[in-house]
Amino acid sequence: MHTQAPQAIGQQYDGRSPFPPAQQRLSVHAGQAALTATIVIAPFIALACGIWLAWGSGISLTDLLLATVFYIATGLGVTVGFHRLLAHGSFTARPWLRAVLAVAASMSFQGNLIGWLAAHRRHHTFSDRPGDPHSPYRYGAHPGGRLRGLAHAHLGWLFSSEPTSAARYAPDPLRNDPAMLRISRAYPALCAASLLLPFAAGWAISGTLYGGLTAFIWAGLVRIALLQHVTWSVNSLCHVIGERPYTTRRHDRSTDLWPLALLSFGESWHNGHHSQPDCARHGRAADQIDPSAALIRLFERLGWATNVHWQAPDFLQHHRAVAGKHTLHTSARRPGGAGDRA
Ligand SMILES: [Zn+2]
Ligand SMILES: [Zn+2]
Fold first, then answer.
1. CA 288–ligand 1 middle distance (angstroms)
2. 220-248: per-residue pLDDT in tens?
3. Cα radius of gyration (the chain)
4. pLDDT digits (tens, 9 = 90+) for 150-161
5. Coil, helix or strand at residue 92
6. b/e per residue, 214-251, with b = 16+ CB within 10 A?
7. Cβ proximity of 249 and 127 under 8 Å
8. Cα–ligand 2 centroid distance for 246 (angstroms)
């Protein structure tokens, strides 16, 4: 269980020192660490192998199409399902759509539903303060600490011994949503399906076992590695590099990073997201491409999504007025700058 201690420590945090050690630690089971390492490293090795294979013989059109389809399906599952729907309640979805999105997201090898929600909500509770499970400022704001922190925010936190209480941060699916609980528990089976489906599709389309194997590498392992690293880059890079046009809570250093916008389905407009976490659209300005928000809009038109939290029409106007008043644009680009709201 997480105690009140991090909040108390967070109040005294100066915004630049390394975070104090956590009050509670888990002894990480060697088997668990090995499993996490496999889930993290195997797709990455496949990514290297896939590039090497493609260099020699080219990638088949079937592999490319299957990889794209699985990347989009599981990626939007994470962004629209896990993140905007379940973690932040940005909209209400029909029960079948909720289940489809949760299943698709669970096939992305990013942890089970309950664990994902709990860690992410904790990140918003303590953004870049002690208690944040994956802040790049954990080891301090000086360049060396920031570099070490980037590795921690990207990957290292997955091996952390600091527990995140599911009862505290994800009580809703635990208590009142048996379907979500079942999907969370089915995570290992859904991971297996995430590898077997591309293999079966590649085999069926090409008619050869070799076609199944290359689809397994490209649309299975390589696709998983790419999506994992794009998602984790939002945790790491999108708190260090980029612009901070919007006000966030004190110490929160989330950024907007345009090069990742398309691959992350709009999630790299991360400063926009932290400025209003329950908004269904993370790209706050009209020219910020946000495919996840476009899908939610489509669901809304089809009547599958209701109660969608869109930003107020006068948001940008209001923001510009506030920015002008407090010279936000010049100060906010510096992490931890005076644009931060206390
Ligand atoms: Zn964040
Ligand atoms: Zn979020």
1. 18
2. 999 999 999 999 999 999 999 999 999 89
3. 20
4. 999 999 899 877
5. strand
6. bbbbbbbbbbbbbbbbbbbbbbbbbbbebebbbbbbeb
7. yes
8. 15
